[in-house]
Specification:
About 75% of the residues lie in helices and about 0% in strands. The longest helix is centred in the N-terminal third of the chain and has 45 residues. The chain is mostly helical and about 140 residues long. It is elongated.
Length: about 140
């Protein structure tokens, strides 16, 4: 029995795999966009907090939430890491690298933790990435 591979230049298999991967690419670009918005918001919160702390004089009447500065910095760092991981995934899928399948599985499992939208999207896209024809890609 002959092994099936996409290296035989069968356009039907290649096009079917491309159709399966469109949803994963769209989700990756969407995640990059959402994370970029979160980074921008974190930068604005950090700048606003630092500006208001420098304008107002310390007094017992003014309460500064202690979590705004570390939370904003944490949001910027985590956001940059998430954008980098999704960009690596898109690059790996486009270049047909083997690491991209494992990386997208990890990112989809992490996306499933955000209930309920991430759970639905993660489950649907995990089903697509686990399809036997995609494993040949």
């Amino acid at each position: 029995m002959m092994a099936i591979s996409l290296d035989d230049n069968n356009p039907d298999d290649y096009n079917n795999v491309k159709k399966y991967l469109v949803g994963i690419r769209i989700w990756s670009w969407t995640a990059i966009g959402i994370t970029s918005i979160i980074i921008i918001i974190s930068i604005f919160i950090l700048a606003w907090t630092l500006r208001s702390m420098s304008i107002l004089h310390p007094s017992p009447d003014v309460i500064y939430p202690p979590f705004l500065i570390p939370g904003s910095i944490f949001g910027i760092i985590v956001g940059a890491a998430v954008i980098t991981l999704y960009a690596i995934t898109i690059f790996g899928i486009n270049k047909r690298k083997k690491f991209s399948v494992k990386l997208i599985k990890v990112l989809l499992v992490l996306a499933m933790l955000s209930f309920p939208i991430g759970t639905i999207i993660g489950a649907l896209l995990l089903r697509r990435i686990n399809n036997p024809i995609v494993k040949l890609y």
